[in-house]
Amino acid sequence: MFTSFIQLYKKAYSGLSRNSWFLSIVMLVNRSGTMVVPFMSIYCIKQLHFSIVEAGTVMSLFGVGSISGAFIGGKLTDKFGFYDLQVGALISGGLLFLVLGYQHTFLTVSIGTFILSLCNESFRPANSTAIAHYSTPENKTRSYSLNRLAVNLGWAVGAGLGGLIAAVNYHLLFWVDGLTNITAALFLLRLMPRSSVVNSIKKIEKGIVKISAYKDRIYLVFIFFSTLFAMCFFQFFIMEPVFYKLQWHFSESFIGFLMALNGILIGVVEMVLVHNLEGRRNGLLYIITGVLMGAFGFVMLVFLPAGTVAAIFIVLLMTFSEMLAMPFMNTFWISRSTDYNRGEYAALYTMSWSAAQVVAPLTGGLIIAYGGFSLLWWALCGLSMVAAGGYYLLYRLVKSL
């Protein structure tokens, strides 16, 4: 039985390109320093003495910067290629994390957060395009899952250590986050020297029409419901830690453990799960299942009593929601794109998540301020149900074409 278990993992990880592994190593180094974002809301409220609405506004500005960065990053990727943009985004983002740690007023923190996010998030379309470039049609979903594995293992390290560091000194979070960004850029330069990277820019051949992602109606419908899902999912990392601190009175260390548990579970389970599900059914059906699990997880925050077991159970629900939905979301946008417009498709997908980062913290903060956490969890459950219904209608539409 142990041999079968090992073979299962071996099959899940085999057949991926060397550069796909290198890109994932770079992502792992980068995300191992992810400490500022998961604790930013608590930092603003507890250390800088901002109101919950002001903290939500700061996180929304992070989202505004993400949208701008994703849009610019997509355009630059299709024009200049994915390599230089990744290096530049990592270095500039790292330096700006260091600068942000020295800002203490609502105005300077807001401005610093926006500029940081703009530079940092321009990395995503370039990175997504690079993964597609170095994968095959047969392993695209697993290539992105490998990258997500790196993200979430890094998240597990970052959130876990971040909780311990925050309990001692919040300012150190900015230094660790910034320096790991810069280190990731150095790893990229070392593992994939610029001279070894084949030019990823594709000139449009005569007779081939470049279809814009912004005119693909089916893709725009997909993006709309993805944004609704993302608005709900982000509360798991933005307002749920605040809920655990203010309502369930957990320590920063335990909150960090919960965030780390999410990453650990993804690291252990997702690649095997995707390997066994990929190609068996339409990916939209897996997305629907994942979104519905997330809706159930939000409801449990209302009904379950405060406690360690309840919190871990909710993390399990939200993690399986993520593992079922997100890998197949990546597969969907890749299937709609070509070599000539992949940066644009990647940018629009990234922008949908960035838009959710704008709306989620601000609306979450307002709902909590005027109706409490219970109203927020019910609202997120309802919105998740709408998203699941929308994906089902999209599934029927795609199936009929």
Automatic annotation (TrEMBL):
SUPFAM superfamilies from the UniProt entry: MFS general substrate transporter (SSF103473)
Sequence intervals crossing the membrane: 20-45, 52-74, 80-102, 149-168, 218-238, 250-272, 284-304, 310-334, 346-369, 375-395
Keywords: Cell membrane, Membrane, Transmembrane, Transmembrane helix, Transport
Pfam families: MFS_1
Entry-linked InterPro entries: MFS, MFS_dom, MFS_trans_sf, MFS_Transporters
Topological type in the membrane: Multi-pass membrane protein
Segments forming domain Major facilitator superfamily (MFS) profile: 19-399
Gene3D superfamilies linked to this entry: MFS general substrate transporter like domains
Coiled-coil regions listed: none
Molecular function in Gene Ontology: transmembrane transporter activity
Cell compartment(s), UniProt: Cell membrane
Broad class of where this protein is predominantly found: membrane
A Gene Ontology cellular-component term: plasma membrane
Protein name (record): MFS transporter
Lineage: Bacteria, Pseudomonadati, Bacteroidota, Sphingobacteriia, Sphingobacteriales
